[in-house]
Write a structure and sequence with these properties.
By secondary structure, the chain is of the alpha/beta class. Helices cover 30% and strands 17% of the residues.
Length: 254
């Protein structure tokens, strides 16, 4: 993997960075937790979430795709109502977790499986970043994102336990194929690949999905990626609050 100083992801180290949700202490404050598991509690754009999925936001539980994808949908909406987050001529965009699962399935590159996936802006140069949550065999969450200014694909892993080369190479080839399909074979971006080794690390076996959401939040809001992420239980409740109210609440004080 190339690891040049000029392509480094922004990492921030501060003890006063994190917002602590003191208003809520339980998921029961957001909905009736005792109803039918498959009842759809919330809908947003093209995402929905069932009660059983929402309950994976409880402390000590591994997040499921429905929660991750719903939160990505909320993050995408940020740039439609918060002017300060608008990049000059560009915007970030978060894909659903199924995108990389399909693109990289069976150990090979499968662009045919995502041919019907479309970005809101057909011109890929309209984006500053593309964020991809990665579900690794239903046992671990990580995050891959493309930074178009730095022409670098980054991998963020809160356990530093995954060889993501296959996923990163597939995503790079996808970006190249989209470029060729739009502009032809001239000026193809030379995408670099980089593991981010000094990102925040989880201290248990179940918080990887929360860390993936936090990493996505950082990229979508322009925050530096922290090297620590304390009090994940408070962050779970803030994500639950965002889902219930249909807009993203801050994970950070700054």
């Amino acid at each position: 993997m190339q690891n040049k100083k000029s392509t480094k992801a922004k990492i921030q180290n501060t003890d006063k960075l994190f917002f602590v949700n003191e208003k809520y202490s339980s998921l029961s404050q957001f909905c009736d937790i005792n109803g039918a598991p498959d009842t759809i509690l919330f809908r947003h754009a093209n995402a929905s979430i069932q009660r059983q999925s929402f309950m994976t936001l409880a402390q000590g539980t591994w997040l499921v795709d429905e929660v991750i994808n719903y939160y990505m949908s909320l993050l995408n909406d940020l740039h439609s109502y918060i002017i300060d987050l608008t990049y000059p001529g560009r915007r970030p965009y978060a894909l659903k977790s199924f995108f990389l699962t399909l693109l990289c399935s069976d150990g090979r590159y499968n662009i045919d499986r995502v041919v019907n996936w479309t970005l809101p802006e057909y011109d890929i140069t309209a984006y500053s970043h593309i964020v991809c949550p990665l579900n690794i065999n239903n046992v671990h969450w990580a995050l891959i994102y493309a930074d178009f200014e730095k022409v670098t694909i980054y991998f963020l892993d809160s356990l530093r336990c995954t060889d993501a080369t296959h996923y990163m190479l597939c995503f790079r080839q996808y970006l190249i194929d989209i470029h060729i399909g739009t502009y032809g074979v001239e000026n193809i971006p030379q995408w670099k690949l980089e593991y981010v080794h000094n990102c925040a690390q989880q201290q248990n076996s179940y918080d990887c999905g929360i860390f993936a959401c936090m990493f996505a939040y950082c990229i979508m809001t322009g925050h530096s990626i922290p090297d620590a992420f304390p009090n994940s239980s408070s962050r779970r409740l803030t994500i639950a609050q965002s889902i219930q109210q249909g807009r993203v609440f801050p994970l950070f004080n700054s």
